[in-house]
UniProtKB/TrEMBL annotation:
The keyword Iron applies. This is Cytochrome P450. Heme binds at C423. Pfam families: p450. One of its GO terms (molecular function) is heme binding. The keyword Cell division does not apply. Keywords: Heme, Iron, Metal-binding, Monooxygenase, Oxidoreductase, Signal. SUPFAM superfamilies: Cytochrome P450 (SSF48264). It comes from the Eukaryota. GO terms for biological process: retinoic acid catabolic process; sterol metabolic process. It comes from Ciona savignyi (Pacific transparent sea squirt). Belongs to the cytochrome P450 family. InterPro entries: Cyt_P450 (IPR001128), Cyt_P450_CS (IPR017972), Cyt_P450_E_grp-IV (IPR002403), Cyt_P450_sf (IPR036396). Its cofactor is heme.
């Protein structure tokens, strides 16, 4: 009955593709679909189904029929089909808390325009301007970590990406530590309430759907779906909007027939903070984890820094007292020359992509491979699974995968997505990540994982170690 119900709904009277089969898979149990398996099996959910059904398969969660897609060919079709075949969808909480005026919730020409405006924050000139305070905040965080016996990497990296974002993306300079801490608290209240899984049980209001989800995922509900959370998120949103109102310096733009309202500018600023916060901290934490597990990679990065004059091989005590300007000078051009560090960053995002995949909704019935994706269905393109398919040895950390061989990685390597919605903050993320890794290595001759066992990874809101990744730092004497 449940299968028939879904199949009937998959029929699109306006389409001439109804003769094609829908992708193989299962709608699971009535109403709940395969939600329980999805939540409990983690990464195995996708890999077991891919093995059974192939790289495009049907599933269903909280009554939503969906198709999961992996591999460069299908992923490319979904990503480049934005605005035509598919459109973005975000959970209710994202729309309510981040607002509807930002980039992620816009479509069509307005989306394009907002991206163009936001890109102005990520030009080479702007990134070069951010470097001094990216370095300043990295140094501050590393020093802070050194004060602790077993500092937790993830929370520290979150704080780092927040502090840099406040300067770079909000344009605020907060020197009072108490004020900065308070803002951090407010921001966390906002972002920790943003995520939930999309759901749409016909005939049920939001609160009833909450109950439905609550039955299956107490943890998710506690984290992101309770009314209290939404309320707190909205409260934090208002506080941040009020703060930004007093600081708006960007003039309204009147280009391409569009105009940005004050609210749109403020929401875009908060959205950029949000988009760069968990993701960059995830990348940095994973890089720290891999560098601890691979001393030979650490040594190669260290050597590259020495070769480029960013780190001194051996510092005498006299050197230590006279700060070496050459050693400290880093700009975007200098960062680009650190090609091995770049390989390490790329490889980190290959085996541990912060964002595992993203959601779309089919705007019309369309064909993918030999199958039909019906209008209105949810489509998820899988980032982690695509990497698993397109590269050998998914779990083996090997920066040589990105040695300059000229191999084409477009749509095979997609940590930042692709097509019209490709991440606009990727150069910013790359810059802050490299600078923070450099600072970690400048100040520490190494670090070890404090726990013997590899940490359990959690994928919401982005991939991160459940235990926060405690490490034991080995500070250099003379830095
Ligand atoms: C390592 C860090 C990062 C990763 C892995 C990452 C990943 C991604 C991915 C996969 C997407 C595409 C989502 C989709 O297809 O719907 C995306 C979009 C986006 N990212 Fe990032 N991101 C990172 C850092 C940043 C930073 C630092 C910013 C801004 C400061 C940012 C801003 C955005 C925005 C605004 C979008 C939406 C683009 C649109 O809808 O047109 N991201 N990111």
């Amino acid at each position: 009955w449940w299968h028939q119900y879904n199949m009937r709904k998959a029929f699109d009277p306006d389409s001439n593709l109804n003769h094609l089969p829908i992708p193989p898979g299962s709608f699971g149990l009535p109403f709940i679909g395969e939600t329980i398996a999805w939540i409990t099996q983690g990464a195995n959910f996708n890999s077991s189904r891919r093995k059974k059904y192939g790289n495009v398969f049907t599933t269903s969660a909280i009554s939503l029929p969906m198709v999961k897609v992996s591999g460069h060919e299908y992923v490319k079709q979904v990503l480049t089909g934005e605005h035509d075949l598919v459109t973005t969808i975000w959970p209710y909480t994202v729309r309510a808390i981040l607002g509807m005026n930002g980039i992620v919730n816009s479509t069509g020409a307005i989306h394009k325009f907002k991206r163009k405006v936001a890109f102005k924050a990520f030009t080479r000139a702007m990134l070069n301007q951010y470097i001094p305070f990216m370095r300043h905040h990295s140094a501050k965080i590393v020093q802070q970590m050194q004060k602790s016996e077993r500092p937790l990497v993830y929370p520290n990296m979150l704080r780092l990406t927040f502090d840099v974002g406040v300067n770079a993306l909000l344009g605020l300079e907060i020197t009072d530590q108490a004020k900065s801490d308070k803002l951090f608290q407010t921001f966390n209240q906002l972002v920790s309430n943003v995520f939930c899984i999309p759901h749409n049980i016909p005939g049920l209001g939001f609160n009833k759907r909450l109950l439905a989800v609550a039955i299956f995922s107490k943890n998710l509900v506690q984290k992101s779906l309770s009314f209290e959370s939404i309320f707190q998120g909205m409260k934090a949103r208002q506080q941040l909007l009020d703060l930004l109102q007093t600081h708006i310096e960007i003039k309204k733009k009147a280009e391409d027939d569009f105009e940005l309202s004050d609210l749109a500018i403020k929401e875009m600023a908060i959205e950029l903070m949000f988009a760069g916060y968990y993701t960059s901290a995830s990348a940095l934490t994973s890089a720290t984890l891999e560098l601890a597990r691979h001393p030979e990679v650490f040594a190669k990065v260290e050597k590259e820094l020495i070769d480029h004059g960013i780190l001194r091989e051996e510092r005498s005590s006299a050197d230590a007292e006279t700060p070496d300007e050459e050693e400290r000078k880093i700009d975007l051009q200098a960062l680009h020359k650190l090609t091995y560090l770049d390989q390490v960053f790329k490889e980190t995002l290959r085996i541990r992509p912060p964002v595992l995949g993203a959601y779309r909704r089919a705007r019309k019935t369309f064909q993918i491979g030999d199958y039909r994706i019906p209008k209105g269905w949810t489509v998820i393109y899988n980032i982690r699974d695509t990497h698993e398919m397109e590269f050998k040895h998914m779990s083996e950390f090997n920066p040589e995968n990105f040695a300059p061989t000229g191999n084409e990685t477009k749509y095979r390597y997609i940590p930042f997505g692709g097509g019209p919605r490709m991440c606009i903050g990727q150069d910013y993320a790359r810059t802050i990540s490299k600078l923070a890794i450099i600072e970690m290595i400048r100040c520490n001759s190494g670090w070890k994982l404090a726990n013997e066992k590899l940490p359990k990874m959690v994928s919401i809101p982005t991939l991160h170690p459940k235990d926060g990744l405690p490490v034991i730092l080995e500070p250099r004497d003379k830095v």
